[in-house]
Design a protein that fits this description.
Layout lengths: L3 E5 L14 H12 L6 E3 L2 E8 L2 E8 L7 H10 L7 E7 L6 E5 L8 H10 L5 E5 L9 H5 L8 H21 L1 H8 L1 E2 L4
Parallel strand pairs: 1-4, 1-5, 5-7
Antiparallel strand pairs: 2-3, 3-4, 6-7, 6-8
Helix pairs in contact: 1-5, 2-3, 5-6
C-alpha cells in the first residue's frame, strides 16, 4: 500500500508557535494528536512521526529549516522514505486567500510563497497541497510582519474550524483521492 508524506509548513521555535505562518504545523499537530502519532524523531531537518491514518501508512513532518528553506528538508525526507511527489501533501498558509478559506490543489506553482518555492525546487510542481487562507494584512502593514503575527482571540473560533476542516480534507484525500477532497472541502468557512 502506498505511503504518504504529510508536511505542515511553519517556523521552528516557541516564539513562532501561534503565528499565522505556522498554520501548517498546527494542522500536523492536530493530526498527530487525533491519530496518536508521535512526532518524536528527527530526519533530514524535520520532526517526523510514523503512523496510520484511516489505515493508510503516513509520515507526518514539520520541517525545522525555517519556512523559506522548507524544501531542504522536504526533498530529503521524501527521498529517504521513497515517497513520490504525488503522495506528498503540503499544508501551508496563504496570504492571497481570505481568512477561513481552504483550497486543495493537485499541483501548481508557488504563488509567491517562499516555502513552496523551496519545495518546488526539490520536488517539481507535481505534488498536492492544502492552502489555508490567512488574508492580507490590514492597512499598510508589511506582509512579512503579518505572517509572523499570532492569531488574535477573536480569530480563535474560526481558526479551530479551519483546523477541523483541514483534518477532514486530509482524511478525504487519503481515503478517496485529491479530486474528491477538492470538490468536498474547497470552501470559505465563514460564508456558511
Amino acid at each position: 500500500m502506498d505511503r504518504f508524506l504529510i508536511v505542515g509548513l511553519g517556523n521552528p521555535g516557541r516564539n513562532y508557535r501561534e503565528n499565522r505562518h505556522n498554520l501548517g504545523f498546527m494542522v500536523v499537530d492536530k493530526l498527530a494528536e487525533k491519530y496518536a502519532i508521535s512526532l518524536n524523531s528527527v530526519k533530514s531537518k524535520a520532526i517526523v512521526g510514523n503512523g496510520r491514518i484511516l489505515d493508510r501508512p503516513v509520515i507526518l513532518a514539520k520541517p525545522q529549516t525555517y519556512m523559506n528553506l522548507s524544501g531542504d528538508s522536504v526533498g530529503p525526507v521524501a527521498a529517504f522514505y521513497k515517497i513520490p511527489p504525488e503522495n506528498v501533501l503540503v499544508i501551508y498558509d496563504e496570504l492571497d486567500l481570505p481568512f477561513g478559506t481552504i483550497r486543495l490543489r493537485e499541483q501548481g506553482g508557488a504563488g509567491g510563497h517562499n516555502g513552496m518555492k523551496s519545495i518546488i525546487n526539490h520536488l517539481g510542481q507535481g505534488f498536492p497541497r492544502v492552502r489555508l487562507g490567512i488574508g492580507r494584512p490590514p492597512g499598510r502593514m508589511d506582509p512579512a510582519a503579518w505572517v509572523l503575527r499570532d492569531f488574535g482571540d477573536e480569530e480563535r473560533p474560526l481558526l479551530n474550524e479551519i483546523l477541523a476542516e483541514a483534518i477532514q480534507a486530509i482524511e478525504t484525500y487519503l481515503a478517496e483521492g485529491i479530486q474528491l477532497a477538492m470538490s468536498r472541502h474547497n470552501k470559505r468557512l465563514n460564508d456558511e
